[in-house]
Amino acid sequence: MNTSLTTLGNGPMPGPSPIAGGGLVLAVPSKGRLEELTRKAFTNARMAIARPGGARAYIGAIKGQPHVTVRFYPAGEIARGLIHGSVDIGVTGTDLIHEAAENGPENVVFVRGLGFGEADVVVAVPDSWIDVTHMADLADVASDFRARHGRWLRVATKYVNLTRRFFAEYGIAEYRIVESAGATEAAPAAGSADLIVDITSTGSTLSANALRVLDDGVILKSEANLIVSRTADWTPLRKAQLEAFFSVLGGVPAGISTLL
Ligand SMILES: Nc1ncnc2c1ncn2[C@@H]1O[C@H](COP(=O)(O)OP(=O)(O)OP(=O)(O)O)[C@@H](O)[C@H]1O
Ligand SMILES: O=P(O)(O)OC[C@H]1O[C@H](OP(=O)(O)OP(=O)(O)O)[C@H](O)[C@@H]1O
Fold first, then answer.
1. What residue range is the signal peptide (predicted)?
2. How far is the CA of 72 from the centre of ligand 1 (A)?
3. Which of 21, 103, 129, 228 has CB 3.0 to 4.6 Å from 109, enough for a Cys bridge?
4. Which CATH superfamily is domain 24-118+223-257 in?
């Protein structure tokens, strides 16, 4: 697995930044698989993240980057912070940028994929729905579901916005979203929803719950990314700090130069 943040090799250990004052917020995932792999990626790039207060502390630092404050946030919060400009640089899943706002991708620069957190957001139905293999079949099911069952078709998901946009592309409007905070795959068997939209990587959670991805049901392919906010307040000082940060990672990436 390639967890390198650099494109041009690791380079020398960074010295103290010549720039004083101001400061950038670098947000990294506070828990789960993304936390561990993100920290490994920064360590590989000789930018090891220190978390002096331990696993429950929410502020960290990078040696040699005195103008960078590391904040540990849930992955979804990082996406929202990058879009709104309260986070300058962040690592999170691309799925969360797309889910957080329809114009989310326009408000950030995806600097590079990090080679982990690879997963697809998919539409999955019970294995027993043998005649439903494509979104067009689902559209047929949705259109007469209420007449047949006396209630709307229910979709369990935490990807409410991605679901609405994707279903609209197929003209599917007759359904209800059941917001799910976790264990979404359990919802159809538990009777709280008819189908789901969720993230999958190996597919084992879907098959363990007798669910199947529709043939054209991949909404998007996601990966952990190093991301820069376009909406942050890019004063000349902070732009210089951003350049200093990326100089350690092999140079300022092309997409960033439009900010500078
Ligand atoms: N099985 C998986 N394989 C690879 N990447 C995944 C997998 N599940 C989730 N991810 C990635 O990690 C991100 C965070 O997922 P996770 O399940 O840790 O979030 P959460 O705990 O539900 O959300 P939050 O961290 O915002 O509270 C996902 O949005 C996706 O980008
Ligand atoms: O396709 P799979 O490889 O089965 O992964 C999919 C599962 O991973 C995530 O959950 P979570 O992070 O709670 O699960 P995990 O750590 O067990 O993968 C996601 O919400 C799915 O439930």
1. none
2. 15
3. 228
4. Periplasmic binding protein-like II (3.40.190.10)
Q: Which ligand 2 atom minimizes the distance to the CA of 200? A: 1
Which amino acid residue places its CA nearest to atom 14 of ligand 1?
Answer: 75
Question: Amino acid identity, residue 30?
Answer: S
Q: How far from each other are the two terminal CA atoms of the chain, in whole angstroms?
A: 32
Intervals of CATH 3.40.190.10 along the chain: 24-118+223-257, 120-222
CA distance 162 to 126: 20
Query: Residue 107, SS3?
Result: helix
In sequence order, the 6+-apart residues with CB closer than 8 A to the CB of 247 are none
Torsion of CA 223, 103, 254, 95, to 10 degrees: 0
Q: Give me the interface pTM, i.e. the ipTM.
A: 0.93
Best substitution site from 199, 206, 222 to test ligand 1's pocket, by max atoms within 8 Å of Cβ? 199
Single out the residue of 111, 121, 114 nearest to residue 224, CA to CA: 114
**pLDDT one-digit tens code per residue, 39-52:** 999 999 999 999 88
SS3 156: strand
